[in-house]
Amino acid sequence: MSLAAITLVSSVLLNLFPQTPEAYGPLNFACCVKYTRKPVPFAVIKGFIEQSSIEVCRIDAIIFFTRNNKKICASVRDRWVKAALGRLRSKIAKLESKASQHMTRAGEKRVNETNTHSPWSFE
């Protein structure tokens, strides 16, 4: 067989087998390849994730999710990005604090509402 024939048969066979997307990560994940330099108003940001260059993508980035479901790639070195991350982390801390207080209060109510004398106590 000639080299051209082998190449043709090989390419046909390789195209018959579907490529597995699992080898490349989730289908809905797209890497940031450049940063936006235009600051995004904090009011439109609803969340973020961090992209690391040591994983799948080539650059380190912060990916902001906006209220209208857009993804905005930004550099963590930019001042506006640092400010937005600080505000988001502050909001998360407040929510965690409220959730912790709510759980504690709910636990206190349950203890107060139940009989404090256990059938297994030796009093």
From TrEMBL:
Q: Where is the signal peptide?
A: 1-23
Comp. bias intervals (Basic and acidic residues): 96-112
| Main subcellular localisation | secreted
Q: Where is this region: Disordered?
A: 96-123
Going by the UniProt record, its keywords in alphabetical order are: Chemotaxis, Cytokine, Disulfide bond, Inflammatory response, Secreted, Signal
Cellular compartments annotated: Secreted
Please give the biological process terms from Gene Ontology that the record holds: immune response; inflammatory response
What InterPro entries does the record point to? Chemokine_b/g/d (IPR039809), Chemokine_IL8-like_dom (IPR001811), Interleukin_8-like_sf (IPR036048)
Matches recorded under SMART domains: SCY (SM00199)
Q: Which SUPFAM superfamilies match?
A: Interleukin 8-like chemokines
Q: Where is the composition biased (Polar residues)?
A: 113-123
- One Gene Ontology term of the molecular function aspect: chemokine activity
GO CC, alphabetical: extracellular space
- According to UniProt, the name of this protein is Chemokine interleukin-8-like domain-containing protein
Lineage, opening ranks? Eukaryota, Metazoa, Chordata, Craniata, Vertebrata
